[in-house]
Amino acid sequence: MFFSVVTISVGALLGWFTWDLLQMPRRRSAIFVHLVFHQEAYGDEIRRSSGGVLGRGSVYVHLGKMEDEGLLESRVTPSQRRLYRLTAAGRRDAVKAIQRL
Fold first, then answer.
1. Tens of pLDDT along 4-44?
2. Domains in the chain: how many in total?
């Protein structure tokens, strides 16, 4: 598994923050960052916000793995699209990653 330091700039209501997510796979950290700030999102939204880290095929593979691990949950919307959000365990993992900064 590829580990690296990932610097992701994320807009928040009160300004811009830079997060160095240490020792986390780049793709997983991109998903965590997006869902921490957006609560719920479609896979394509997460892919577009990843800055090229996640491709069209890989985003759903990683979302599925994280859902299997209990870090994410999803629901199908009336438009038949799958909407993802962090579970309590996923929020704990995201907080742990942020606290390591």
1. 334 444 443 333 344 444 435 778 888 888 998 899 999 99
2. 1
